[in-house]
């Protein structure tokens, strides 16, 4: 469709019309899909933004390709670059952004059906979004285990290792089945390339199908299967993109609204239209 194609569900393709849709009670099951772009304002670099993204800054780590840092065979061979990066990304050093708080406000108003995030920074939880409403599609830094025997590794020791960019090793002693000390490399439970997504991702995909509004925020939609999620939104259900650039198929359907620019600004505009702006800023300041 072109930008002047008339919408089917909305009055017009604008944030004002999205706000009307929410306020009229027609959107009670809002699904949100997020990526690294909602955390850049917190100081965490994304992958693909030119110049500021991680991929643009990995040259110093001497990797075959920037993506190797999240590649399991490479990690098994050389885990050090991952830990250099992990030091910069580790949860606890950052605060949620206005975009995170907006999603949390949706949850507070019982409008959030489900949040699907690709982020591994745990800022959704830090913003107070209830964990049962979050699918961390690419896992998170919240837990970790040995890549060989899968024995979990303690959180406090993990934090110490990451703060020194040191590679933690499995502490499992001899067992009946295996008389050796394991000493395998420990990796956070984040999903590396070619690893399976958590089963929760697949279990909750139905929620996208019965959503009555979808918000896509801060993602390049380059990583599958996550990138396919917006395609599961039913025909006639509005989809809004808050992103620096146009991505995926967003903008191609009659009820798609594109809000191009930084997502905190876009979300503040929507909050203005909804009359939620003061509440949003107050919640954000409280964190
Ligand atoms: P990406 O491929 O780096 O894309 C980010 C997208 O966000 C791009 O389209 C940018 O234009 C856009 N963007 C950047 N800043 C803003 C902003 N302030 N406002 C609006 N849009 C913005 O990242 P994706 O999440 O799409 O890629 C998936 C990877 C990135 C996942 O596997 C993540 O685990 C991984 N990642 C996560 C984090 C994190 O947890 N914060 C950080 C870096 C990478």
From TrEMBL:
Signal peptide interval: none
Binding residues annotated for Zn(2+), in chain numbering: 146, 149, 170, 182
Record domain Deacetylase sirtuin-type: where: 8-277
Annotated source species: Cercophora newfieldiana
UniProt cofactor(s): Zn(2+)
Residues of the full protein shown: 9 to 295 of 442
Cellular component terms (Gene Ontology): nucleus
GO MF annotation, one: metal ion binding
Superkingdom per UniProt: Eukaryota
Name of the featured protein: DHS-like NAD/FAD-binding domain-containing protein
Keywords, alphabetical: Coiled coil, Metal-binding, NAD, Transferase, Zinc
Active site positions: 138 (proton acceptor)
Family: Belongs to the sirtuin family. Class I subfamily.
